[in-house]
Design goal:
Elements lengths: L4 E6 L6 H13 L2 E7 L10 H11 L6 E6 L3 H7 L4 E6 L2 H17 L4 E6 L9 H9 L10 H12 L15
Parallel strand pairs: 1-2, 1-4, 2-3, 4-5
Length: 175
């Protein structure tokens, strides 16, 4: 029998405890999970790709069947490149579902052999988004209970370095 390999793609800017909940649950369901830290041209990132990969590696170090990789291709192309037949997506609310439904149908058109797997966000993380975490941190609020400890330190460092009001991508209009 072949390994059941899944990818969990996202920008993870920054990684949150909600993301880690999805990683944990995916790791329980699949033989191997590749967390795919992507470059999304539609998003302005707070952290560089290398920083986001490093933070995810540190946060996921305890998972024996999880690896972290960066990617800058179509999600289905990346899935094929690592031998994955499943793409994991977390769903918080109906608005997430609409976006993910559209994306799933496009991915099915591009790669019918790859299945989308939707995991509902655990109730304690329903309110949590990376955009809100960045916004709170940019204004100096504590996000310690929302992100892994190393991520909280990096965010606090940015805020204490005089970068309050730093562009977060959360609320400002696009350029």
């Amino acid at each position: 029998m072949t390994d059941r390999i899944a990818i969990y793609p996202g920008s993870f800017d920054p990684p949150t405890n909600g993301h880690l909940d999805i990683v944990q649950r995916a790791a329980d369901l699949f033989d191997r999970v590749v967390v795919a830290v992507g470059t999304n041209l539609a998003k302005k990132t707070f952290f560089s790709g290398a920083e986001r990969i490093a933070m995810m590696r540190e946060a996921c170090a305890g998972f024996r069947n999880v690896e972290i990789r960066g990617f800058d291709t179509l999600t289905v192309e990346f899935a094929r490149s690592v031998g994955a037949r499943f793409v994991i997506r977390g769903i918080r609310a109906l608005s997430d579902f609409e976006f993910e439904f559209e994306m799933a149908n496009m991915n099915r058109r591009l790669a019918p052999e790859i299945e989308m797997v939707f995991l509902m966000t655990s109730p304690q993380w329903l309110y949590l988004s990376a955009s809100r975490v960045k916004e709170l941190a940019a204004f100096g609020a504590s996000v310690d209970d929302m992100v892994p400890p190393a991520v909280a330190k990096r965010l606090a460092h940015h805020a204490s370095g005089g970068k309050r009001g730093l562009r977060t991508g959360a609320t400002e209009p696009s350029d």
